[in-house]
């Protein structure tokens, strides 16, 4: 049976480090400010907003949510971003993905000041990631949190075959870049990958990261025995049960280690979001911090 990777417990340790960092800022009268813009009513986004407000308050981050209806205009959202760019009390801005179709998500991402871009979606930040640049810049929190989790679990990536399923800007693409920077051999698959090719590649994967939004896409029989499985899926089934993209029942019998849903990647995303927020606040006020993940 696979080891269950306890994302909730690792997130708790990371939040404790972030709380210490926030306390350092507080000594200099800096309270990190995170602004979240939520347009419409995506179910995964609702969970995210609820959990992150709770977690932010506990570590000493001031989180504010700006809710807009499904029919909000692009101009309204851009005006909100602009106001937050100018707001000295706001260090980090996040626009929940997805946004309704009348709003050009790309345009909104590019409107956020790169220094306040807590998701790392601005091309100035994502460009640095894809160029493999050194130095500090914000990186998408879900893949960054997954890297922290893999490091915490001491899972070796050097030269290993890692299969990433899904190519979103939120997860798949930055995940690919981070794993590659960690010297893994990364294969990025997506909805147009034929099932038999997917099966062939998965059979040789030492680590699998699944971020597709398709429940039960990956079964135990698809995995190489002993593989590490990271399930990013967040699917609500009828009856309100929350499941990932991996069939947990069968996968635990084959994998070496696996993240559960809930209690795996989700809590790490939130803890990492707070970590990035505190880093952006420190940069904004030119205060030195010790690096977070090294201390967990
Ligand atoms: N710009 C942007 N950045 C995001 O990072 C982003 C986004 N948009 N849009 C929505 C998705 C979804 N997402 C979640 C994060 C944590 C949980 C989470 O806390 N999950 C708990 C759920 C527990 C419960 O049931 O409450 C868990 O997995 O244990 C859920 C969903 C971030 N997203």
UniProtKB/TrEMBL annotation:
Its EC number is 1.5.1.5, 3.5.4.9. The keyword tRNA-binding does not apply. Keywords: Amino-acid biosynthesis, Histidine biosynthesis, Hydrolase, Methionine biosynthesis, Multifunctional enzyme, NADP, One-carbon metabolism, Oxidoreductase, Purine biosynthesis. Pfam families: THF_DHG_CYH (PF00763), THF_DHG_CYH_C (PF02882). One of its GO terms (molecular function) is methenyltetrahydrofolate cyclohydrolase activity. Homodimer. Catalyzes the oxidation of 5,10-methylenetetrahydrofolate to 5,10-methenyltetrahydrofolate and then the hydrolysis of 5,10-methenyltetrahydrofolate to 10-formyltetrahydrofolate. This is Bifunctional protein FolD. The lineage of its organism: Bacteria, Bacillati, Bacillota, Bacilli, Lactobacillales.
């Amino acid at each position: 049976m696979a080891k269950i990777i306890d994302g909730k417990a690792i997130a708790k340790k990371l939040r404790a480090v972030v709380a210490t960092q926030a306390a350092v800022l507080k000594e200099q009268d800096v309270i990190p400010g995170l602004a979240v813009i939520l347009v419409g009513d995506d179910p995964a986004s609702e969970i995210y907003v609820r959990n992150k407000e709770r977690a932010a308050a506990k570590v000493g981050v001031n989180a504010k949510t700006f809710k807009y209806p499904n029919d909000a205009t692009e101009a309204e959202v851009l005006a909100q971003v602009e106001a937050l760019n100018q707001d000295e009390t706001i260090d980090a801005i996040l626009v929940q993905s997805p946004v309704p179709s009348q709003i050009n998500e790309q345009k909104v991402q590019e409107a956020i000041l790169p220094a306040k871009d807590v998701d790392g979606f601005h091309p100035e930040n994502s460009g640095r990631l894809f160029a493999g640049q050194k130095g500090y810049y914000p990186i998408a929190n879900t893949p960054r949190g997954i890297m922290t989790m893999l490091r915490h679990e001491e899972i070796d990536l050097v030269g290993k075959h890692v299969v990433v399923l899904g190519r979103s800007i939120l997860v798949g693409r930055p995940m690919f870049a981070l794993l590659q920077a960690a010297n893994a051999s990364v294969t990025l698959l997506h909805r147009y990958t034929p099932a038999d090719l997917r099966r062939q590649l998965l059979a040789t994967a030492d680590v699998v990261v699944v971020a597709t939004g398709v429940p039960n896409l990956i079964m135990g029989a698809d995995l190489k025995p002993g593989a590490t499985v990271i399930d990013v899926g967040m699917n609500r089934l009828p009856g309100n049960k929350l499941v990932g993209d991996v069939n947990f029942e069968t996968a635990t019998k084959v994998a070496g280690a696996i993240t559960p849903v809930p209690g795996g990647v989700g809590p790490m995303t939130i803890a990492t979001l707070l970590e990035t927020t505190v880093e952006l606040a420190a940069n904004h006020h030119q205060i030195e911090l010790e690096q977070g993940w090294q201390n967990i």
